[in-house]
Design a protein that fits this description.
alpha+beta
Length: 360
């Protein structure tokens, strides 16, 4: 039986997905049924009967698992998944119940926080005893803090109503610790494809470009970025002799937008961008590297960056339009996507906006 969906940010970046992430297993604890998903050394729980993804708990004790493995790609290193034949240890329900009854459970809040040179989300965990910790998605170190969240708020409040107090706690207690946090030892990871190959990605983009009105574009290049817990994988630029377009990704919605001063002279259809997103989804490019002193999206003094990659084509060497459409229709059918996408001929016009830091 297929388990329910369990989307967990920041491990699941917001972007088009054919297969949504699901719970690893189910835990029975007293009268409660919890959906459980493991990520970054924590067991995340959601009440199976509570239709509120905003209320997520986490258990931080070592998890007794049988068959838990992780592969070599970055996503599974930080969010290991159960293989098909893997299962929780026989006493997992008793263990989880004991952890909950002993108070070793925390309310998970993904806090959007604006600093002087960065804006991103930080994973905070509030225990009911007035203590808590921040555990970044790129390591398993805990940065402790204290809070005065009431039990009622801990149980009932929606996460946005906690942002103001959580932001003050973060600013006062957590940020100074993160500024001095050590970098992960295995911090640089080259570009890899978790479920496919670069050739698979290239084949889709080649056919997608063939459906566009870019016959005089000469050399065409599409540039994309890998998936990390800080970045949504996808194509963010396209260039040809006749023009170019460059976009950014909204970190909360995954939608593309354009900065006013960025180029927008190469007009491509909604079909092209969606085909690119689907190709990204079925190939899963991952990888990252660290840069220093830019106060970005990792710790406060360094940031992990996605790996960029480019695919190049010669416009007059692209396949005929009818051949490309037939190939894409077959590919969409194979991956379980709607072939109606091929009729999305209208030009994609991206919202133009400034990249303003939000405040809490």
């Amino acid at each position: 039986m297929q388990l329910p969906e369990f989307i967990l940010r920041p491990f699941d970046a917001p972007r088009p997905r054919l297969q949504l992430p699901r719970a690893d297993f189910v835990i029975e604890s007293g009268a409660k049924t919890f959906l459980a998903r493991q990520a970054n050394g924590l067991l995340f729980l959601r009440d199976a009967n509570r239709n509120d993804a905003d209320f997520t708990l986490a258990i931080g004790a070592p998890i007794p698992m049988a068959g838990l493995t992780s592969s070599s790609n970055r996503e599974s290193v930080f969010a290991p998944r159960l293989e098909e034949d893997a299962s929780p240890a026989p006493d997992i329900q008793q263990w989880a119940t004991e952890q909950i009854q002993s108070g070793n459970v925390a309310r998970y809040v993904l806090l959007p926080f604006a600093g002087e040179h960065y804006f991103r989300e930080f994973p905070l965990f509030f225990r009911p005893d007035g203590t808590g910790f921040c555990r970044e998605s790129w390591n398993t170190d805990d940065f402790p803090f204290e809070h005065d969240l009431s039990l009622h708020d801990w149980l009932e409040a929606r996460a946005p109503s906690l942002y103001a107090s959580a932001g003050e706690i973060f600013r006062r207690e957590v940020a100074p610790q993160l500024s001095n946090a050590r970098l992960p030892a295995d911090r640089n990871h080259g570009l890899t494809f978790g479920q496919g190959t670069r050739a698979d990605l290239r084949a889709v983009l080649r056919a997608a470009f063939a459906l566009e009105k870019i016959a005089n574009a000469g050399l065409i290049r599409a540039t994309g970025q890998s998936e990390t817990t800080f970045n949504r994988a996808g194509f963010w630029a396209a260039r040809g002799e006749g023009g170019e377009v460059e976009v950014w990704f909204d970190h909360t919605t995954g939608q593309r937008f354009r900065l006013p001063w960025k180029p927008d002279s190469l007009r491509l259809s909604r079909r092209f961008w969606m085909l690119g997103d689907l190709a990204i989804d079925v190939t899963t490019p991952t990888g990252l590297y660290w840069d220093y002193h830019d106060r970005g999206r990792g710790r406060l003094s360094e940031s992990p960056h996605a790996r960029d990659f480019s695919l190049q084509f010669i416009a007059d060497k692209l396949p005929p339009r009818a051949e490309a459409r037939e190939w894409l229709a077959q590919w969409l059918n194979e991956i379980g996507a709607d072939s109606a996408i091929l009729d999305w001929d209208e030009i994609e016009v991206f919202e133009e906006r400034e990249m303003e830091a939000q405040t809490i």
